[in-house]
Write a structure and sequence with these properties.
The protein has 212 residues and is an alpha+beta fold. The protein is built from 4 helices and 8 strands; from the N terminus they run ααβββββαβββα. The protein has one domain: Roll (3-methyladenine DNA Glycosylase, Chain A). Strands 1, 2, 3, 4, 5, 6, 7 and 8 form an 8-stranded antiparallel beta sheet that branches. The chain is globular and about 45 Å long. The N and C termini lie far apart (46 Å). The N terminus is likely disordered.
Protein backbone atom coordinates (compact mmCIF):
# COMPACT_ATOMS: atom_id res chain seq x y z
CA UNK A 1 0.00 0.00 0.00
CA UNK A 2 1.27 3.47 -0.84
CA UNK A 3 2.00 5.74 2.09
CA UNK A 4 -0.23 8.82 1.56
CA UNK A 5 2.27 10.94 3.50
CA UNK A 6 5.16 10.02 1.22
CA UNK A 7 6.25 12.63 -1.37
CA UNK A 8 5.20 11.95 -4.93
CA UNK A 9 7.82 10.56 -7.28
CA UNK A 10 9.75 13.25 -9.12
CA UNK A 11 9.10 13.31 -12.84
CA UNK A 12 12.40 13.02 -14.73
CA UNK A 13 11.35 15.84 -17.04
CA UNK A 14 11.59 18.37 -14.20
CA UNK A 15 15.12 17.25 -13.32
CA UNK A 16 16.70 18.57 -16.51
CA UNK A 17 19.19 21.27 -15.52
CA UNK A 18 18.37 24.84 -16.39
CA UNK A 19 20.52 26.12 -19.27
CA UNK A 20 23.20 28.77 -18.97
CA UNK A 21 20.94 31.29 -20.69
CA UNK A 22 18.56 31.13 -17.73
CA UNK A 23 21.17 32.79 -15.52
CA UNK A 24 22.48 35.34 -18.04
CA UNK A 25 19.57 37.68 -17.35
CA UNK A 26 18.57 40.44 -14.96
CA UNK A 27 19.25 39.17 -11.43
CA UNK A 28 15.85 40.10 -10.01
CA UNK A 29 14.16 38.30 -12.89
CA UNK A 30 16.29 35.22 -12.28
CA UNK A 31 15.58 35.31 -8.54
CA UNK A 32 11.81 35.33 -9.00
CA UNK A 33 12.04 32.66 -11.69
CA UNK A 34 14.07 30.34 -9.44
CA UNK A 35 11.11 29.82 -7.08
CA UNK A 36 9.60 26.41 -7.71
CA UNK A 37 12.71 25.03 -9.39
CA UNK A 38 14.57 22.07 -7.89
CA UNK A 39 17.98 22.15 -6.23
CA UNK A 40 19.40 18.69 -6.83
CA UNK A 41 22.65 17.29 -5.47
CA UNK A 42 24.03 13.80 -5.92
CA UNK A 43 27.60 13.35 -4.72
CA UNK A 44 29.46 10.35 -6.18
CA UNK A 45 28.15 7.08 -4.76
CA UNK A 46 25.27 8.69 -2.89
CA UNK A 47 21.52 8.95 -3.37
CA UNK A 48 20.16 12.22 -4.76
CA UNK A 49 18.94 15.01 -2.52
CA UNK A 50 16.26 17.22 -4.04
CA UNK A 51 14.48 20.28 -2.73
CA UNK A 52 12.03 22.74 -4.25
CA UNK A 53 13.27 26.34 -4.05
CA UNK A 54 10.91 28.45 -1.94
CA UNK A 55 13.01 31.44 -0.83
CA UNK A 56 15.80 33.45 -2.46
CA UNK A 57 17.47 36.87 -2.30
CA UNK A 58 18.92 38.93 -5.15
CA UNK A 59 22.27 40.72 -4.84
CA UNK A 60 23.02 43.35 -7.44
CA UNK A 61 26.76 43.79 -7.76
CA UNK A 62 29.22 46.42 -6.60
CA UNK A 63 26.58 49.15 -6.16
CA UNK A 64 24.61 46.94 -3.75
CA UNK A 65 25.99 47.69 -0.28
CA UNK A 66 24.56 44.41 1.05
CA UNK A 67 26.66 42.39 -1.39
CA UNK A 68 30.18 41.06 -0.92
CA UNK A 69 30.89 42.60 -4.32
CA UNK A 70 30.51 46.12 -2.85
CA UNK A 71 34.18 45.76 -1.84
CA UNK A 72 35.17 44.86 -5.37
CA UNK A 73 36.99 41.90 -6.88
CA UNK A 74 38.69 39.82 -4.18
CA UNK A 75 39.76 36.21 -3.85
CA UNK A 76 36.48 35.51 -2.06
CA UNK A 77 34.20 37.29 -4.53
CA UNK A 78 35.99 36.15 -7.69
CA UNK A 79 33.30 33.57 -8.61
CA UNK A 80 30.70 36.34 -8.80
CA UNK A 81 32.68 38.01 -11.58
CA UNK A 82 32.86 34.83 -13.60
CA UNK A 83 30.42 32.93 -15.84
CA UNK A 84 26.77 32.86 -14.85
CA UNK A 85 25.25 29.54 -13.86
CA UNK A 86 28.00 28.60 -11.44
CA UNK A 87 27.83 28.30 -7.65
CA UNK A 88 29.27 30.89 -5.30
CA UNK A 89 29.62 29.21 -1.89
CA UNK A 90 31.12 30.98 1.11
CA UNK A 91 31.40 30.64 4.88
CA UNK A 92 29.78 33.05 7.37
CA UNK A 93 30.39 33.32 11.12
CA UNK A 94 33.12 30.72 10.62
CA UNK A 95 30.56 27.90 10.63
CA UNK A 96 27.73 28.29 8.07
CA UNK A 97 28.08 27.71 4.34
CA UNK A 98 25.79 29.62 1.97
CA UNK A 99 24.95 28.80 -1.64
CA UNK A 100 24.42 31.39 -4.39
CA UNK A 101 23.79 31.11 -8.12
CA UNK A 102 25.90 33.56 -10.14
CA UNK A 103 23.86 35.62 -12.62
CA UNK A 104 24.28 38.21 -15.34
CA UNK A 105 27.22 38.99 -17.60
CA UNK A 106 30.84 38.08 -16.90
CA UNK A 107 32.43 40.90 -14.93
CA UNK A 108 29.11 42.02 -13.42
CA UNK A 109 29.17 40.42 -9.94
CA UNK A 110 25.53 39.57 -9.30
CA UNK A 111 24.12 36.50 -7.61
CA UNK A 112 21.03 34.96 -6.02
CA UNK A 113 21.29 33.56 -2.50
CA UNK A 114 19.37 30.30 -2.05
CA UNK A 115 17.72 30.75 1.34
CA UNK A 116 15.34 27.80 1.65
CA UNK A 117 13.99 24.72 -0.08
CA UNK A 118 11.02 22.46 0.52
CA UNK A 119 12.32 18.87 0.85
CA UNK A 120 11.31 16.58 -2.00
CA UNK A 121 13.69 13.62 -1.81
CA UNK A 122 16.61 12.51 0.35
CA UNK A 123 16.65 15.52 2.72
CA UNK A 124 16.19 14.69 6.39
CA UNK A 125 17.44 17.85 8.09
CA UNK A 126 15.86 21.31 8.24
CA UNK A 127 16.28 23.39 5.09
CA UNK A 128 14.57 26.65 6.14
CA UNK A 129 17.59 28.94 6.01
CA UNK A 130 20.77 29.23 3.92
CA UNK A 131 23.06 27.69 6.53
CA UNK A 132 20.64 24.89 7.36
CA UNK A 133 20.15 24.20 3.66
CA UNK A 134 23.86 23.72 3.00
CA UNK A 135 24.21 21.53 6.08
CA UNK A 136 21.29 19.34 4.95
CA UNK A 137 22.80 18.91 1.48
CA UNK A 138 26.35 18.50 2.77
CA UNK A 139 27.55 21.48 0.73
CA UNK A 140 30.74 23.34 1.59
CA UNK A 141 33.57 25.22 -0.07
CA UNK A 142 34.56 22.22 -2.18
CA UNK A 143 31.53 22.98 -4.36
CA UNK A 144 32.37 26.64 -4.87
CA UNK A 145 32.31 27.36 -8.64
CA UNK A 146 30.38 24.13 -9.37
CA UNK A 147 28.56 24.37 -12.71
CA UNK A 148 24.86 24.39 -11.84
CA UNK A 149 24.00 23.48 -15.43
CA UNK A 150 25.91 20.19 -15.58
CA UNK A 151 27.60 19.06 -12.35
CA UNK A 152 26.44 16.87 -9.46
CA UNK A 153 25.05 20.10 -7.99
CA UNK A 154 22.43 21.57 -10.27
CA UNK A 155 19.24 23.60 -10.43
CA UNK A 156 16.59 21.93 -12.54
CA UNK A 157 13.45 22.91 -14.38
CA UNK A 158 10.93 22.12 -11.65
CA UNK A 159 7.66 24.05 -11.88
CA UNK A 160 7.88 27.86 -11.51
CA UNK A 161 5.72 29.50 -8.85
CA UNK A 162 2.78 31.54 -10.10
CA UNK A 163 3.40 35.29 -9.86
CA UNK A 164 0.41 35.72 -7.53
CA UNK A 165 1.99 33.31 -5.02
CA UNK A 166 5.33 35.14 -4.84
CA UNK A 167 5.88 37.31 -1.77
CA UNK A 168 8.55 40.01 -1.46
CA UNK A 169 10.29 41.71 1.45
CA UNK A 170 13.59 43.32 2.39
CA UNK A 171 16.50 40.94 2.63
CA UNK A 172 17.37 39.37 5.97
CA UNK A 173 20.46 40.25 8.02
CA UNK A 174 21.72 43.25 6.04
CA UNK A 175 20.83 46.21 8.28
CA UNK A 176 24.36 47.64 7.86
CA UNK A 177 23.63 48.32 4.15
CA UNK A 178 21.70 51.55 4.67
CA UNK A 179 19.01 52.17 2.05
CA UNK A 180 19.93 48.89 0.38
CA UNK A 181 18.67 47.04 3.47
CA UNK A 182 15.17 48.22 2.65
CA UNK A 183 15.16 47.11 -0.96
CA UNK A 184 12.47 44.41 -1.56
CA UNK A 185 14.91 41.84 -2.96
CA UNK A 186 13.84 38.77 -0.99
CA UNK A 187 11.35 36.55 -2.82
CA UNK A 188 9.47 33.59 -1.40
CA UNK A 189 6.62 31.20 -2.06
CA UNK A 190 3.69 32.41 0.05
CA UNK A 191 2.20 28.90 0.07
CA UNK A 192 5.24 27.17 1.58
CA UNK A 193 5.83 26.60 5.28
CA UNK A 194 9.53 26.02 4.60
CA UNK A 195 10.57 29.66 4.15
CA UNK A 196 13.15 30.73 6.74
CA UNK A 197 10.96 33.41 8.31
CA UNK A 198 7.40 34.65 8.00
CA UNK A 199 6.76 37.69 5.86
CA UNK A 200 6.02 39.74 8.97
CA UNK A 201 9.30 38.93 10.72
CA UNK A 202 11.23 39.49 7.50
CA UNK A 203 10.14 43.11 7.48
CA UNK A 204 12.23 43.65 10.60
CA UNK A 205 15.62 43.64 8.90
CA UNK A 206 18.34 42.76 11.35
CA UNK A 207 21.67 41.02 11.77
CA UNK A 208 25.19 42.07 10.83
CA UNK A 209 26.74 39.67 8.33
CA UNK A 210 26.63 40.14 4.57
CA UNK A 211 24.70 37.48 2.73
CA UNK A 212 26.34 37.65 -0.68
Amino acid sequence: MTDPAAPAAVNSSVLEPLPRAFYVRDTVEVARDLLGRYLAFQPPGQSPMIGRLVEVEAYLGERDLASHASHGHTRRTAPMYEEAGHAYIYLVYGMYWCLNAVTGAVGSPCAVLIRAVEPVEGLIQATDGPGKLCRAYGLDGRWNRADLTSSELRITAGCPVEATAIGTSPRIGVAYAGAWAREPLRFFDRTSRHVSRTQRSALRVNGSDRSS
